[in-house]
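Bug: C-alpha cell stream looks shifted between consecutive jobs. Job 1:
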Amino acid sequence: QVQLEESGGGLVQAGGSLRLSCAASGSITIINNRAWYRQAPGKERELVAFMNGGRTTYLDSVKGRFTMSRDDAKNTFSLQLSSLKPEDTAVYSCKANVYGYAYGSKDFWGQGTQVTVSS
C-alpha cells in the first residue's frame, strides 16, 4: 500500500539542530494530512506537529523551535528541529493519512528515528 521511510535522526548537543525527513511511496492518490510524533522512554507518545492543508500546529513546548514542511512533488515532509534541549530526546515517528482507491483513507507510520540531545 504505502510506505513511509524516515531519515535524519542522531545525536546532537543541546542547542544544536537536526532535520528529520519522511518519504512516502506506494499507492498514493492524495495525502490528507501529515504528522510527527515522539515518544520518550517511560512516557506516552505525543503529537509534535500536525499539518493539514495550509495549517500546521505544534506542541507548545516546541513552538518557535521546530518547523514542519512538505514537498508535494516528492511526497516528502520534514521536521526541522532547532535549539534542541535534552528533553527533546525521543524516538520521532512520522505519520500520514493517505487516500488510495484500493484502501480508502488510512494512517501509515514510519519506522521511527532516534533523536538524542546531550547536555
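Job 2, same session, no restart:
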Amino acid sequence: QVQLVESGGGLVQPGGSLRLSCALSEHINTINTMGWFRQAPGKQREFVAAITFSSSTTDYEDSVKGRFTISKNNAKNTVYLQMNSLKPSDTAAYYCNADLWVEGALRNYWGQGTQVTVSS
C-alpha cells in the first residue's frame, strides 16, 4: 500500500514562511497529479494547490495565489508547498493528495495531515 509521508508543518508568526513536503513511500512510475488540501476546525476540507507531473501545470485556490508555490521532484516522487506571507486564516491541517497509476488503475491517496498554525 503506497503511503504519502508529509512533513514541514509547525507554528509560525503572521507574515512568516513554511515549506511542506510530501513523499511517496515507494517509487511509482507514473504519477498523474499531486497536491494539497487543508481543513480548518469546523470547516470542510478545501483545495489549496496541485501540480500535474507530466506537464508541470499548476493550479491554486484563489486566496493563496501569489503567496504559495507548489513544486515537484520527479526523481524523488515528492511534492512541495512553499508558503509565504502566511496569515492566521491559513491555519489548518494540510493534507497531501495524489492520483497515482498503481497496478493498472488510477488510484487516489491521502496523507495523514500536518498541522500549520499561524499565530503571534
